[in-house]
């Protein structure tokens, strides 16, 4: 049965699309889009802020929606983040809607700047602003990122727990971050994009036959391969003598979406994720092999509030917003029937709890966890649907 043969699934997808638009409108303030609906829990956990990464994903969905309130909200969200940009160019992890607070996390928040740049490019191309809008902020943001780029690998370096997976022990060269970096390089025509592509594929996929040219890359490859089997996907991070082979779904999906994975690697990634049943019953579990307390990479902070234990949060929980990117990657590879089926599953996840738009679910019990009314769930769903329908620019 194809998606077109299932009126009930199509009706659910359409209902989810309308509910997604309604949620974005409900979570919009005059200064930009909040990460989640305003509840007592969300206020206590500061989800009623404009987050760099969350807002950027929402901006791409709001821009092109055809709804004036959301179109204006897309620009306002980027403006709010730009207004609190650090003097060195870094975009904050989040800003207060009233402009009173800008947070830069414990060890920095490298991906907020990357996502902001991606959203800026998207709105410049598909919104109502001109190509020079946010020009000064863009230059400073790019300069800040370039200051963290290795001068031979042309990959960004970062601290532990300083991206969206902010209580995972990924550090050094991180897959997710550098997939975004390559996308930024292509969008803004930055130098050395081909070097980034080359070293990305040699560092994060050290099991291929082709040896890297640089002798330090060969040593990193040696450490990465030692005692490991080819996981069928990119490593989540590479540091000097330790790496992440837990199976980072989001980073691998973004590698497909950003054009870093060739056709063969992209299909291997999809097959690996599918074989692990990571999208069942809802897309998608963000780690294929969660880190237990006895794992070498386990950190004490992962157990704080029992939050990042096995099958929870970033350590194997189901995140519907990442499910939207999974659908987009499938569509990009021409796997349209599979993508439509996954979009139906994603609609079901957002519907759970009377359209709760749950932040994440326990990877085994499916218990709803985190905040309700998660804006980027709605946004990623709309982007995936838009891409499948060919009804506008999604990425």
Automatic annotation (TrEMBL):
InterPro entries: 6-hairpin_glycosidase_sf, 6hp_glycosidase-like_sf, DEP_dom, Glyco_hydro_100. Residues 141-202 form the DEP domain. Keywords: Carbohydrate metabolism, Glycosidase, Hydrolase. Its EC number is 3.2.1.26. GO terms for molecular function: hydrolase activity. Pfam families: Glyco_hydro_100. The keyword Ribonucleoprotein does not apply. It catalyses: Hydrolysis of terminal non-reducing beta-D-fructofuranoside residues in beta-D-fructofuranosides. Belongs to the glycosyl hydrolase 100 family. This is beta-fructofuranosidase. It comes from Variovorax rhizosphaerae.
């Amino acid at each position: 049965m194809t998606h077109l043969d299932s009126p009930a699934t199509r009706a659910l997808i359409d209902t989810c699309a309308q509910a997604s638009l309604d949620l974005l409108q409900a979570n919009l303030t005059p200064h930009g889009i909040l990460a989640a609906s305003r509840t007592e829990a969300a206020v206590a956990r500061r989800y009623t802020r404009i987050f760099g990464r969350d807002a950027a994903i929402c901006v791409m969905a709001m821009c092109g929606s055809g709804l004036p309130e959301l179109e204006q909200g897309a620009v306002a969200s980027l403006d709010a983040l730009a207004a609190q940009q650090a003097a060195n160019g870094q975009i904050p992890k989040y800003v207060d809607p009233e402009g009173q607070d800008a947070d830069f996390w414990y060890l920095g928040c490298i991906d907020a700047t990357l996502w902001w740049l991606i959203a800026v490019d998207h709105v410049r191309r598909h919104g109502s602003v001109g190509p020079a809008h946010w020009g000064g902020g863009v230059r400073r943001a790019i300069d800040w990122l370039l200051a963290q780029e290795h001068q031979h690998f042309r990959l960004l370096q970062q601290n532990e727990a300083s991206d969206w997976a902010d209580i995972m022990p990924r550090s050094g060269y991180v897959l997710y971050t550098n997939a975004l970096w390559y996308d930024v390089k292509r969008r803004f025509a930055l130098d050395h994009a081909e070097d980034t592509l080359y070293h990305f594929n040699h560092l994060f996929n050290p099991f291929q036959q082709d040896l890297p040219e640089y002798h330090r890359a060969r040593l990193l490859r040696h450490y990465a391969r030692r005692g490991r089997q080819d996981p069928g996907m990119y490593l989540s991070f590479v540091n000097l003598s330790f790496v992440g082979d837990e199976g980072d779904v989001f980073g691998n999906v973004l590698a497909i979406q950003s054009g870093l994975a060739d056709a063969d690697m992209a299909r291997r990634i999809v097959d690996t994720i599918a074989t692990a049943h990571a999208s069942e019953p809802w897309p998608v579990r963000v780690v294929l092999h969660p880190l237990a307390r006895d794992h070498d990479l386990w950190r004490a902070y992962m157990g704080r509030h029992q939050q990042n234990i096995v099958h929870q949060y970033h350590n194997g929980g189901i995140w519907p917003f990442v499910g939207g990117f999974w659908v987009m990657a499938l569509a990009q590879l021409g796997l349209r029937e599979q993508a439509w089926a996954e979009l139906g599953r994603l609609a079901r996840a957002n519907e759970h709890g009377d359209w709760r738009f749950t932040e994440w679910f326990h990877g085994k019990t499916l218990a709803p966890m985190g905040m309700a009314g998660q804006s980027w769930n709605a946004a990623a769903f709309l982007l995936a649907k838009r891409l499948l329908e060919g009804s506008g620019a999604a990425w």
